[in-house]
Amino acid sequence: MLDLENIFSDSAKAMKASVIRELLKLIREPGIISFAGGLPAPETFPTEKIKEITSSIIEREGAFMMQYGPTEGDPNLKAQILKLMKNEDDYPFDNENVLVTTASQQGLDMTGKLFVNSGDTIVVGVPTYLGALQSFSAYKANYMGIDLDEEGLITSDLEEKLEAIKKRNEKMPKFIYVIPDFQNPTGITMSLNRRNELLRIAYKFGIPILEDSPYRALRYSGESIPTILSLDKKGYVISMYTFSKTMLPGLRLGWLVSQNKEIIQKLTIIKQGTDLCTPPFTQAIAAEFVKLGHLETQITNNVAYYKQKLKFMLNALEKEMPKIDGLSWTKPEGGMFLWVKLPDHMSADDLFPKAVKEKVAYVIGSAFHCNGKGQNTLRVNFSYSTIEDIDLGIKRLAKVIKDNA
Asked: Count H helices, E strands: the chain?
């Protein structure tokens, strides 16, 4: 038998399966209502428009879209991306500031490859997106976890910890990873003051910021807050976006953008060794979809639909959850997730098999913690389930919590 332990690389040995993906395997029994995934609702997919666009664009650009393409991305799609970004803010970007990726998860992996050596530190929120931890851990990163409050990452705590590192003359973290809008998993949005403070701290200590923005367009209430990218005056910020939550996840399309073109150039070289290019086929479809104005309509429809689901889930939680000390949940202004905190003595890890027995599922909150904590927390998704399933699923979840309080 081949001795794989002596053959696998250190990076391969450090890789771990996604907790969410593994949990999803356990909840495929008929009748289980799953709040575990981070999935858009299939009924929102613009299937007919995609059919029409695909047919027409194959006739017009078939040879081009079926061939290899430039690593940097389809120029037509990049032009549409730049227009989208200018509609939000007057970003001073051109094609060389943008790199098209095979969805934003590839951006996480490539950023880890760009910055992280074994043993380097990355600043992350506690909790933070599990997929980011999975990507960065593959490069044997260590983590500096910073707690969140209702305004997002607690920047005063971050600055204090960085000052201590400086006094000890130790190596600074390689970058700060944040999801400012409707954070995964908590749904919290970082305040404008915290965004400005985060930039000030980044400048002070010379640390770049990786801003992950998959949910930004899905705002259901409140005022939009400027991106950290738009506030950046020194080229410290790399931002990641995706079409997965606003158009179609199956297209697997996203992009990286930064004022610092040298960063984009290095990431392009990394991408050349990863997949040569993101599929020109799906890029051509997306470019046409955006050009025809369909994305704007799609986002408007998605916002209206998900807003209704979020409101219904919040009402269901208020109505069904037991009135016990220490039980609370976030009330996000957008995105796809709610974060539930149980009393300190309760464990969402231990409750999970009991919840599955009651035919309801969630994601254990400890999976989103870089420090091994968070056993009394859990994440629930409201975008995928029907209104009827949200109603029944919250009743089931409330029963599990009440029975084990």
From this structure: 14, 14
Q: How many residues does the chain have?
A: 405
Q: Within the chain, which residues score under 50 in pLDDT? A: none
User: Distance (Å, rounded) from C-alpha 130 to C-alpha 149?
Assistant: 19
- The pLDDT value given to residue 364: 96
The CATH fold assigned to 4-46+296-403 is Aspartate Aminotransferase, domain 1 (3.90.1150)
User: 149, 330 in Cβ contact below 8 A?
Assistant: no
CA distances from 5 to 16, 18, 21, 117, 119 (A): 15, 21, 24, 21, 21
- The rounded distance, in Å, linking the Cα atoms of 386 and 249 is 19
Q: DSSP of 275-333, one letter per residue?
A: TSS--HHHHHHHHHHHHTTHHHHHHHHHHHHHHHHHHHHHHHHHHHS---TT-EE---S
CB of 311 closer than 8 Å to CB of 305:
no
Q: How confident is the model at residue 285, as a pLDDT? A: 98
Whole-Å CA distances, 124 to 86, 145, 146, 158, 179: 29, 5, 6, 10, 9
What are the boundaries of each domain within the chain? 4-46+296-403, 67-293
CATH for the 67-293 domain, from 3.40.190.10, 3.20.20.70, 3.40.640.10, 3.90.550.10: 3.40.640.10
Q: Quick check: bond before 185 cis, omega within 30?
A: yes
